[in-house]
Amino acid sequence: MPPVIVRRLLVALAVLMLIAAGLWWGGRPKPIPVVLKEIDRGKVESSIANTRAGTVEACLRTKLSTILGGRIEIMAVKEGDRVKKGQLLIKLWNDDQQAQSALAQTQVESARKHVAEACVLADNAEREAERQASLHAKGFVSGSAEELARAGAQSKRAACDAAQADVGQAQAKVAATRVELNRTVLYAPFAGTVAKIVGEVGEYSTPSPPGVPTPPAIDLIDDSCLYVSAPMDEVDAPKIQAGQAVRISLDALPKQSFAGKVTRVAPYVSAVEKQARTVDIEARFDHPEAPGKLLVGYSADVEVVLAVRDNVVRVPTSALQEGGRVLVADADGLLHERKVKTGLANWEYTEVTDGLAAGERVVTSLEREGVQAGAHFVAEGKLK
């Protein structure tokens, strides 16, 4: 075959190969961009968290009202004041009780004077009875005279005893009037901060009768001791016990968490209408000074740490598919499905006991269309 024809055939063959390559290149499936995570070793924790927001509570908090109703005469504190134990908070108008107390005091003094009088007469009557007895023994007076003197002495002594009893009765009345006076004043049962006051001088303060939710006159908080109360799902309650480690996070202090311990697990389930049944737990900070000044009522979350494994192979929980499967990005540019065995898990990492090794890459963007086994891939961004 002439050389010219050979060259033409070779050129035609090269053109056909180029066309075929172009058709293949244009028709090949485009690689899917995926987010990859390199498998490493580290710590994995098993934990549970509250179902609804918890609350920062004070160890001591009381809502106080006077025992009696009455017009407020003295408001000794204002909102935000720090008070000492036993400090006066509120005094109602009690002039009538004070008058009764003063009257009772005068009755005590009067009764004591009656005692002095009656007992002096009793002493004299007893001495006279002794003289009459001596005279009767000598025959100077009759037996009836002696008996009359003895009866008079006994009567006078009884009158002395009765007068002394009257003193005790008057003193008891004084104590009763003091109790009545104390029912019109309100003292701080412990040192703390006055959070809220309901009422002003001159207004009528009404105590809360049983079953009637009347606003208290004083809301007193001891904010030197704080804890967090949080509701946990009833399903998780058997896993929680006092002494377990927790992490406490506060909406007021974002991107921070504070170590603590579970101090109490409620012995009953709370059933609130239209809400899941929960069990309340209480947790305290390991270092109360760490979060700084906290306000009672802050919302807080409590994460209870159930178990911890250190230096284990772990996979992002977002990379796991149903049935314990992951998509591994291999060097051939394809995604391959692999079954793995898992251990401890949380929302961030899951322990892998078999099926993956440190350094391999898995897909975390499983929600993207076309991400499946056998697909071509291209890593998006930097490897995480």
Can you describe this structure?
Strand 16 and strand 17 (335-339) form a beta hairpin. The chain has three helices and 21 strands. Helix 2 (95-138) packs antiparallel against helix 3. The model has no long low-confidence stretch (mean pLDDT 84). It folds into four domains: 29-44 and 310-379, conserved putative lor/sdh protein from methanococcus maripaludis s2 fold (Beta Barrel); 49-60 and 225-309, Efflux pump adaptor protein, beta barrel domain (Elongation Factor Tu (Ef-tu), domain 3, Beta Barrel); 66-92 and 186-216, RNA polymerase II/Efflux pump adaptor protein, barrel-sandwich hybrid domain (OB fold (Dihydrolipoamide Acetyltransferase, E2P)), CATH 2.40.50.100; 94-183. The strands form five sheets. The chain has a six-stranded antiparallel barrel with strand order 4-11-14-13-12-15. A four-stranded antiparallel β-sheet has the order 8-7-5-10, with no helix packed on it. The protein is α+β, with helices and mostly antiparallel strands. 19% of the residues are buried.
